[in-house]
Specification:
The chain has 355 residues and is α/β, with parallel strands linked by helices. Helix content is 39%, strand content 14%. The chain contains 13 helices and 13 strands. The strands form 4 sheets. Strands 3-2-1-4-5-6-11 form a 7-stranded parallel sheet, sandwiched between helices.
């Protein structure tokens, strides 16, 4: 399903000096129907750049083309060659992935997030692509083993999505080490908990708080680190223009502002929606067990479970990141703190009738 933000009114925006090297380049954005990919794709369109987006289904491509976008179909699980798609491209921004599909087993996650990603990188290099920016996730660090977590902190993936995203980024970086100094520049971007206008994943949390149905699971003292969508787009574009010495073979953890507790996050959303949060809380264990049971029962039928363990992890895992490396090497600076971002997100949800 195409992210709604792509169907909002398009506007033209002057290309900032920071991204001037994108001018005249042919750019491919994979996963353009999704939240991050869609926002990135739309920003490049608004800069009036030569950009093509890929989507999973032909009907999505048709709908985007009817809106005036250039779109192609790309299935990372496909055995088809992709040379025709990548020939002549200068920059590939790879956002596509299998995500939050609990009805699929680890083999399908591996086929898309590892095999498909590596095949895309190899094909891009063979076709003469100059830059390959791969979108991974801070989830490779899972429940972080140090606060704040750096790019050197031990990996701790918690489920099949995060395990395969880790394997995918490592496979791409290992492949990139075989390239010459004049070949494709490869960079890994690890987004934090990305939210903002167009997001439907965190909409569940915003909606529950706005409707008065939210109850905290656990203490709420775990740490959360948000990433506002426009900050995330900036970080991806910086990866496509910074000097080779700063970004080649590098991975960057990306978030906005500073980390906060889950209680602070929920309170900020409640303040923006004008609601109050119940003081009572639900123990974690029974909810986690319910998620496990739902996954076991639903997976044989290919049905998405109503609750699964990774969602429970939202209430139990610490996520807090040191952004020093991104500031130093990417030149990344967050423009939106969590209170501003939450307010703008609530406004967008209300304007579109989501809450």
């Amino acid at each position: 399903m195409i992210n709604r933000i792509l169907l909002d009114e398009k506007k033209k925006t002057e290309l900032p000096e920071t991204y001037k090297d994108l001018k005249g380049k042919r750019i491919l954005v994979t996963g353009a129907a999704g939240f991050i990919g869609g926002a990135l794709f739309k920003r490049l369109v608004e800069y009036d750049l030569d950009v093509t987006g890929t989507v999973l289904y032909p009907e999505e491509a048709n709908e985007l083309e009817s809106q005036g976008y250039r779109a192609k179909v790309l299935d990372l699980a496909s055995e088809e060659p992709w040379d025709g798609l990548l020939e002549g491209m200068d920059i590939v921004l790879n956002i596509a992935a299998l995500f939050q599909e609990a009805e699929h087993g680890e083999s399908m996650y591996h086929k898309v997030n590892v095999d498909g990603t590596l095949k895309l990188a190899r094909t891009a290099a063979n076709c003469g692509v100059k830059r390959f920016v791969h979108c991974s996730t801070v989830g490779v660090h899972g429940n972080v083993k140090e606060v704040p977590c750096t790019e050197q902190t031990s990996f701790n993936p918690m489920d099949e999505y995060h395990r395969t995203k880790l394997k995918g980024e490592l496979a791409v970086l290992d492949f990139a080490k075989t390239l010459s100094d004049k070949d494709m520049i490869v960079t890994v971007n690890r987004p934090a908990m990305v939210y903002g206008p167009g997001d439907e994943r965190m909409l569940k949390l915003f909606s529950a708080i706005q409707s008065g149905k939210f109850v905290m699971i656990g203490s709420g003292e775990v740490l959360a680190h948000l990433g506002y969508i426009e900050d995330q787009v900036d970080s991806l574009l910086l990866g496509a223009v910074r000097p080779r010495g700063d970004v080649h073979l590098e991975a960057f953890n990306i978030a906005s502002g500073s980390y906060i507790s889950l209680n602070e996050l929920v309170s900020s959303i409640a303040e923006a929606t004008g609601k109050r949060i119940p003081k009572w809380k639900i123990p974690v264990a029974p909810v986690w067990l319910a998620g496990l049971l739902c996954e076991i029962l639903c997976r044989p039928f290919g049905v998405k479970p109503p609750i699964f363990r990774r969602r429970v992890g939202f209430f139990t895992h610490n996520r807090a990141f040191d952004l020093s490396k991104a500031r130093e090497k990417l030149g990344y600076e967050s423009r939106v703190d969590h209170k501003q971002g939450i307010r703008m997100t609530v406004d967008w949800y209300q304007q579109h009738g989501f809450i």
